[in-house]
Amino acid sequence: MRRQSTRASLGDDDRPPSGSSSLRRCAGVIAVLVVAMLLGGCVQLSDRARDGGIIAPDGKARHFYPPERRSVVGELSGRSVTDPGATLRLSDYAGKVVVINVWGSWCAPCRLEAPALEKVYTARKSKGVQFLGIDVRETAGDDAARDFIRSHGLTYPSIYDPPGKTLLALGEQYPTTVVPMTFVLDRQHRVAAAYLTTIDEKTLTDAVDRVAGEG
Prior knowledge:
Elements: H1 19-39, H2 45-50, E1 62-64, E2 77-79, E3 87-89, E4 97-103, H3 108-124, E5 129-135, H4 142-151, E6 158-160, E7 181-185, E8 191-195, H5 201-212
Parallel strand pairs: 4-5, 5-6
Antiparallel strand pairs: 1-8, 2-3, 4-7, 7-8
């Protein structure tokens, strides 16, 4: 007796996908991954803290320090985003309250908070308050950074620092991978407040007024 073959014949639905079909599927997977990366491009404290992968003051995203607990920021300087031939230095703003905002043109939360930052700067710059941005992890180049500044109407200066080396001046207790971050420095350029997350207009205004009002 002839033995029946145990191999089932392949119908149309059972055949392996053709080369073009496989390519389409791969392209679809890649597209999904790219979108996910763009939407989740910014590293938030809440995400990193959950995994234990970040150092933060008391494990909090928002922190205000009393004067006796404040640390002085080190030498912080870098080339200007809008004027590559100029160097911006924290020391240029001696005696002023300085708000440092860490951002990137690729960062969606940075785009959301940019209008609030400009509003507070415009409202408080006449009271001895200076803002200074630090553009980090900018893989698209300084043209992208300048487009970000123009599109959001930002009038305060920013340092162009893709590697994020200037962040080391803030102190080792702060992460260098979280974007956005905002720091409020008192008139001695000590860190008075740290926000390792997005910030809104009211929160920033309250912090700036509190620090600026110190004797």
